[in-house]
Amino acid sequence: MELEFFDSKDGEKTVKVNGIFLHSPYSPKKEACRFADSQNCPFFPDFIVITEPALSYSVSALKEKFQGVKIAAIRYTNFFDDYNSCLDFVFYYKGIGSIQNQLQAYFTEDKLFSVFFISWKPSEKAFEKENTQVWKEIKASLDFAKTLLVTRQFFEKKWLINTVNFIKYSKNFYSINKSNLPLLITASGPSLEENLGTIKELENHCLIISLSSALPVLLSNDIIPDFCMTSDGGYWAKEHLKKLKKHNIPLAIANEACCQKSFLQNLPLIPLCYSDGLSKKIYTLSNLPFTQAQRNGTISGTALELALEITSEKIYFFGLDLAETEGFQHSQPNELETAGQVFDNRLNTKEKRLARQTFKNASLEIYKKWFQDKKIPENKIFRVISENFRKNRLGQIKDISPEDFSLRADSIIKSGQVKNREKIFTKINIPSQRNLSKIRDFISTNSESRDWKKALFPLDYTALLHNPANQEISAKLQKENSRLKEKLQKILNDE
């Protein structure tokens, strides 16, 4: 790259890259002011990100026009680092994917839509390859953020409704006692099936947590876990819990999870509550006890965080494949597979349905990355999986074969440690008054507030910030909010 610095006609520094002027050879500051004046943002941004502003004349001009707004640069090179002092923060292009990763790490999905992205036009020609790729990644970041907002708008309302249902109907609360027993976590990946025999042998010697989708597999093999765990807010989560009708297995359940009313009223419950969100505020008002849970894209991650809190011994994961595979994507039997096969026919065959599940799954990539980035104690957590199923690595989690685990199981059994189920849990006395009146008052007082709408309708709220005059979105948000309030009040007032 050929870089030339020299003085402009006005005596200000200017620069060429590969023979292309990045600033006016006459008056760079006036050029920057004209550039800033030409920028018309349809909303008032919280941040401005400008791609390769070179000597940063445009930054001062933009700060004058958009007062109080934080301004960042995406640098295509570090040759202009001496001109970073006027910037609030800087991103660097370091190859394909680097800018998308940096933007998603720095901004939440809400904040990303409060960013005004601007291109310094001369850099588009001087850094043509880098510029094309960076703007592709800016678009990809915004598309991904929109997907997250759509997902949140779908789930946030469900999470709040589930929380109010939980407060209203849950009865039998327990806490989990600390243990010095090894702990097994069963997820529902296909590799679970190759370890069921060994898990059965350890049933009386280890703590066993069954994630909800793995529960039918364990029960069909006469394995009774110490407790089942669910955190999914979608209605389909209830399908996995059906088998609990015939078993009095304790259920570790997040306040936002979807669960049958009868289970909330009758099963032993280990209440879990996340540390953030509107649901946490409302749950706290109820005065009900809970164990702190870590929010995670996958219940496997939440289960791992909980397991680290309750045992001082080693933790073994089963069925944590986190990879697409031919055939069934879950160990069998699986409640969603049972429900799905009802609709199989000659035109929409079982083979076609299963084939669709083998396509690359973005969610699995997110879950896998969380485990890969997780910092864990050395020689503490293991994934039991054979070479036949192993298609990835999970960071510091060590993979061991079923044969290796079988040898470890023999040692565990020979150690003489035997589980006492009666000492795993402690009954919690819960308050007779659940402060439902406080929750009603909170909803009445806050349901028209900006924070309420931003939390529960993030996509529509963001769209209105960008276009406050859009009456269609405004009316839609108001209608959905009214429906939600009616539903919450109906639950709270139900006798």
Cα distance, first to last residue? 75 Å
Mean pLDDT: 89
Helix content: 40-55%
Residues in β-strands, percent: 15-25%
Catalogue the unreliable spans. Answer: 352-360
Q: Could you say which overall geometry the principal axes of the C-alpha atoms support?
A: globular
Find the structural class using helix and strand composition: alpha/beta
Summed up, the helix count is 20
Radius of gyration, rounded?
28 Å
The major beta sheet can be summarized as: 11 strands, mixed
- Strand tally is 18
Describe this structure in words.
With 495 residues, the protein is of the alpha/beta class. Helices cover 42% and strands 16% of the residues. The protein contains 20 helices and 18 strands. The strands form 3 sheets. Strands 8, 9, 10, 11, 12, 13, 14, 15, 16, 17 and 18 form an 11-stranded mixed β-sheet that branches. Strands 6-5-4-7 form a 4-stranded parallel β-sheet, sandwiched between helices. A 3-stranded antiparallel β-sheet has the order 1-2-3. α8 (215-220) links the parallel β10 and β11 (227-230). The radius of gyration is 28 Å and the shape is globular. It starts with a strand and ends with a helix.
